[in-house]
Design goal:
- The protein has 615 residues and is of the alpha/beta class.
- The chain has 3 domains: 231 residues, Rossmann fold (3-Layer(aba) Sandwich); 250 residues, tm_1862 like domain (pyruvate-formate lyase- activating enzyme), CATH 3.80.30.20; 85 residues, Orthogonal Bundle (Arc Repressor Mutant, subunit A), CATH 1.10.10.
- It is 41% helix and 16% strand.
- It has 25 helices and 25 strands.
- It has a 7-stranded mixed sheet with strand order 2-1-3-4-5-6-7, with helices on both faces. A 5-stranded parallel sheet has the order 8-11-12-13-14.
- Strand 12, helix 16 and strand 13 form a beta-alpha-beta unit.
- Helix 4 packs parallel to helix 8 and helix 23 packs across helix 24.
- The longest helix is centred in the C-terminal third of the chain and has 17 residues.
- The radius of gyration is 26 Å and the shape is globular.
């Protein structure tokens, strides 16, 4: 059989599709006689816009619509007019939505007239490969572009087998996608390593796929959904991706000069923290929370092969959380290689300074540590398993080891109150030298999250998020099964406290670039050079027990614990004097206070900072 694999907008332009890279290997391994080709629709879309708009719509505009506006559905809306055969479909609703929320939609409006001719061109190119099966992978805002092309392919070739899979198809979402779109023959729900080859076997034999777990298929005019399996794919059965066809498409693309390509690898699936303490707001991993990881030696071998083959040094891992064993069997291999790799990793925010140092030494330049809050009670409401003090330490250590840290400050948790945020907001100006969050964001209700599955946690009333009204022409009961994001009654803080939080984070972001708070050792003295935005320039000198206290507080401690350490170190300081000094250092903004614990804020180095958006 000829199998044609498709990824549509809005897959990131700078990344190959891991899903296509894996599926290609899976099919070749299970059915070596099949011919497998790929269509990189996101790349084609950027090319199409650049050419047909005369250069007015550029690859950066694809990022604006497809990534930056992901919670407003703009990317799906661009193609919904094609899906519903109505160029004006949903436009009035989108305009009303955007006006209510202050969302810029000019770029999406400019793109929409190009969607229909693009789908025509895609259909012609895909069918030119004479496929027997076309498999789409769909994540985030790839649903409507994929459905629009699937519909056109079936219109032109009714005998063609159309298959959808990916995270947008997990659980009830996959069945809703199937039963509402009769031009989609099959939907693979869950991991594809076992299910997709089994489906291809049935298609080749012309038999009903009754035994393929989780598969949605048509029994005449009835949409069937096979029972999903609890079996997860073993790491040994997860292949190394094949990006050769992506590389060929990129090399031939006129948009190549506009992007900085990176490789995508997968070391682990699931979340070892979520298996025991599922963060209440998180819907990631869907029905496959069980944590599994490839051995570090194998992951390094895969990266070694890909880097040598594609001559690309930026490597993005898609793991939701790093396997802690990688600090023993993977990162030391990367460090010892001597390669100038630039790794991107998601980690937990309770890593030690030594672990963060190893990440930095390995060539890891970007981490996403899931900080989410700097207040311990709010972190408890999330079931994050860390404290605000620990999160501040992580931000400080990222500065010490030149790690770019991406994080969001989340609020809106049932049970939180103004008193949980007031002390944090008051201290944010002292953190201006540390890397700020992308913003302060009210949480949304995500399918598969504990907030969603257990209404008793505080979100009893919910409905599909408002953005889907300008994306899908479906009744609300069907949307309730199809979509990932939901609107619900606001919880937690609001009003003046919410405004203060947003304003404080905005000020942090505005003042960060030129702010420094640096340690320097000068003989027996410890100097702190304060060059933070909003504060007078100053250099503070500490010696004796005061210098020792500031160093001890880098690990975060209460005053009694600090006193015990100083005493053990030969510093006979009265408790009252220590308490007075801690109040003094806190007043200078050299310490962060989280309940009874204090954390030192100065850093040991001044990493080079690119302006935001550069690189």
């Amino acid at each position: 059989m000829r199998v044609h694999l498709v990824t549509m907008p809005w897959h990131p332009l700078d990344l190959p599709s891991l899903q296509l890279g894996l599926l290609r290997r899976i099919v070749r391994r299970a059915r070596p006689g099949d011919e497998v080709t790929e269509f990189h629709g996101s790349l084609r879309w950027a090319e199409f816009l650049l050419e047909h708009s005369g250069g007015r719509l550029r690859p950066g505009d694809c990022v604006e619509v497809g990534s930056d506006a992901i919670f407003h559905g703009l990317g799906d809306w661009v193609f919904s007019g094609v899906l519903y055969d109505d160029p004006g479909w949903g436009t009035a609703r989108l305009r009303d939505y955007a006006a209510d929320r202050g969302v810029f939609i000019g770029t999406a409006l400019a793109m929409r007239p190009y969607a229909a001719p693009f789908i025509d061109a895609c259909a012609a190119e895909v069918l030119a490969a004479e496929p027997d099966v076309v498999g789409f992978t769909s994540t985030f805002m790839q649903n409507v572009p994929s459905l629009a092309l699937a519909r056109e392919l079936k219109r032109r070739r009714p005998d063609l087998a159309v298959v959808l899979g990916g995270s947008n198809c997990d659980g009830p979402m996959g069945h809703a996608l199937h039963r509402n779109h009769p031009f989609v023959d099959h939907v693979v729900r869950g991991e594809a390593e076992y299910a997709f080859p089994a489906l291809l076997d049935h298609l080749a034999a012309g038999t009903a796929p009754l035994d393929v777990p989780g598969l949605c298929w048509w029994d005449g005019t009835v949409s069937r959904a096979n029972t999903e399996t609890r079996r997860t794919v073993a790491p040994a059965d997860i292949p190394s991706p094949d990006y050769d066809q992506w590389q060929a498409a990129l090399d031939a693309s006129p948009v190549q000069e506009h992007i900085h390509p990176k490789l995508v690898v997968e070391g682990a699936r699931g979340c070892w923290w979520g298996e025991k303490h599922h963060c209440t707001f998180c819907g990631l991993n869907g029905s496959a929370m069980v944590f599994r990881a490839k051995p570090g030696e194998r992951l390094w071998a895969e990266i070694d092969r890909l880097v040598r083959r594609h001559r690309i040094l930026d490597v993005v891992t898609v793991d939701n959380i790093i396997d802690m064993a990688y600090f023993r069997d993977f990162l030391p291999r990367v460090t010892a290689s001597g390669w100038d790799l630039r790794l991107h990793y998601e980690v937990k925010s309770n890593l030690t300074p030594a672990q963060l140092a190893l990440l930095g030494a390995s060539g890891t330049v970007h981490i996403q540590p899931g900080i989410e809050s700097l207040g311990s009670r709010v972190l408890d409401l999330m079931d994050k398993g860390v404290t605000g003090a620990r999160n501040v330490r992580t931000l400080r250590e990222c500065e010490n080891h030149a790690l770019t840290c991406s994080w969001n400050l989340l609020y809106g948790f049932p049970g939180e109150c103004a008193e949980d945020y007031a002390p944090v907001i008051e201290q944010l100006p002292a953190l201006v030298h540390l890397q700020p969050p992308s913003g302060a964001h009210r949480i949304q209700l995500e399918r598969f999250s504990p907030h969603f599955t257990d209404p008793g946690l505080g979100f009893g009333k919910r409905r599909p998020a408002a953005m889907y009204q300008h994306v899908y022409d479906l009744p609300e009961d069907e949307l309730a099964d199809l979509v990932y994001l939901f609107d619900t009654e606001p919880a937690g803080i609001g009003g003046a406290v919410e405004r203060r939080l947003k304003e404080a984070v905005a000020a942090w972001r505005a003042g960060h670039a030129h702010s420094r708070l640096l340690f320097e050792e000068d003989g027996g003295e410890l100097l702190v050079h304060d060059r933070r935005h909003g504060r007078p320039r100053a250099t503070h000198r500490f010696d004796g027990w005061r210098a020792a206290a500031l160093r001890h507080l880098e690990d975060g401690r209460t005053v009694p614990a600090l006193h015990r350490l100083l005493t053990a170190g030969g510093h006979a300081v009265p408790v009252a004097d220590l308490e007075a000094w801690v109040r003094y250092a806190f007043g200078l903004g050299l310490l962060f206070r989280d309940g009874a614990a204090y954390v030192s804020l100065p850093t040991w180095g001044e990493p080079f900072r690119l302006p935001e958006g550069a690189g």
